[in-house]
Design goal:
This protein is α/β, with parallel strands linked by helices and 235 residues long. It has a single domain (8-198), classed as Spore Coat Polysaccharide Biosynthesis Protein SpsA, Chain A, CATH 3.90.550. 38% of the residues lie in helices and 23% in strands. It has nine helices and eight strands. The chain has helices spanning 21-28, 48-53, 67-77, 96-104, 123-139, 155-160, 172-180, 199-204, 206-223; strands at 8-14, 35-41, 58-61, 82-86, 90-92, 109-118, 150-154, 185-196. An eight-stranded mixed beta sheet has the order 3-2-1-4-7-6-8-5, sandwiched between helices. The longest helix has 18 residues, at 206-223. The termini are far apart.
Length: 235
C-alpha cells in the first residue's frame, strides 16, 4: 500500500553516468513505494539527466560539482526518515530495504555500511574486495568507517552533524562516519552486499588506486584532509 512518506530515501549523485544510471534506477524502481529515488547531477553533458528522469522521483541539477555537495543537496530534498547514499554504478540486492530497516530498529544505530563486491569480477578484484571488506570491519572496531558506495544514516542524526563536509574532495564518507559515531553506533551490515562496476580499478590500475587511497587516508588521519585536491571522474 502506498505511503505518503517513504521510510527510505535513496540519494544518487551523478556526473556523466549515462552508461550506468538506467540499470541501477530500473532495479530500484521495483521497490516503489518503499523507497524514494533522488538523483542529483553535477553538470552532466551526456544523457544522464534524461535517463534518470524516467525513473527517479526527484531529479535535480546543481551548478558546482562535488560529491559531498550533491549528497547534501539530495538529503535536503529527501522525505525519508532514513537516507541511503548510493553510487550510480552500484547495484544493491532488493532485500537491502529490509536489512537497513532491521539495522535501525536498534535505536543505538545511527549509521550503517555493508560489503561491496565487484560486478563481472576478475580474480584479483575478488581477492582485493574481500580483503577490503574485512579491513573495514576490523578497523571499524577502533574508528568508525564506511564504504561510500553504500551508506545508510538516520536523517535526524545526519542533520544534527550538518551532513557531509563539502570541503573534502574525497573521504567525505569516512569523515561522516567518524562524526556520527559521537551520536551513536555506525555498524557494518554483515549479511548485506552491494555490487559495483570496478571501472576505476580497470582504467587506472588496482595498485595505483590502492596507493592513492592509502596516501589520502593517511593524510586524512594525520592532518584532517586528504592529499588529493580532486577525485577525478572515470567514465
Amino acid at each position: 500500500m502506498p505511503t505518503e512518506k517513504p521510510l527510505i530515501s535513496v540519494i544518487i549523485p551523478t556526473f556523466q553516468e549515462e552508461k550506468y544510471i538506467t540499470s541501477v534506477l530500473s532495479k530500484l524502481n521495483k521497490l516503489k513505494p518503499q523507497i524514494e529515488m533522488i538523483v542529483v547531477d553535477g553538470g552532466s553533458s551526456d544523457k544522464t539527466i534524461q535517463m534518470a528522469k524516467k525513473f527517479a522521483n526527484k531529479m535535480y541539477q546543481i551548478n558546482k560539482r562535488g560529491i559531498a555537495r550533491a549528497k547534501n543537496y539530495g538529503a535536503k530534498k529527501a522525505n525519508g526518515d532514513i537516507l541511503v547514499f548510493l553510487d550510480a554504478d552500484v547495484h544493491p540486492n532488493l532485500d537491502f530495504v529490509k536489512k537497513v530497516l532491521r539495522t535501525f530498529n536498534d535505536t543505538m544505530n545511527v549509521g550503517a555500511t555493508c560489503n561491496v563486491m565487484p560486478l563481472h569480477a576478475k580474480s584479483n578484484e575478488v581477492f582485493f574486495f574481500h580483503f577490503y571488506n574485512c579491513l573495514i570491519r576490523f578497523v571499524s572496531r577502533f574508528r568508525p568507517h564506511c564504504q561510500g558506495k553504500f551508506f545508510a544514516v538516520k536523517k535526524e542524526f545526519f542533520q544534527r552533524i550538518n551532513g557531509f563536509n563539502e570541503d573534502l574532495p574525497c573521504l567525505e564518507d569516512h569523515d561522516l562516519a567518524f562524526r556520527l559515531s559521537n551520536l551513536g553506533k555506525v555498524v557494518f551490515i554483515r549479511d548485506l552486499t552491494v555490487y559495483e562496476f570496478p571501472r576505476r580499478f580497470r582504467k587506472v590500475g588496482l595498485l595505483k588506486v590502492v596507493i592513492t587511497w592509502s596516501m589520502d587516508y593517511l593524510s586524512f588521519m594525520l592532518k584532517g584532509k586528504p592529499i588529493s585536491n580532486i577525485w577525478p571522474a572515470v567514465r
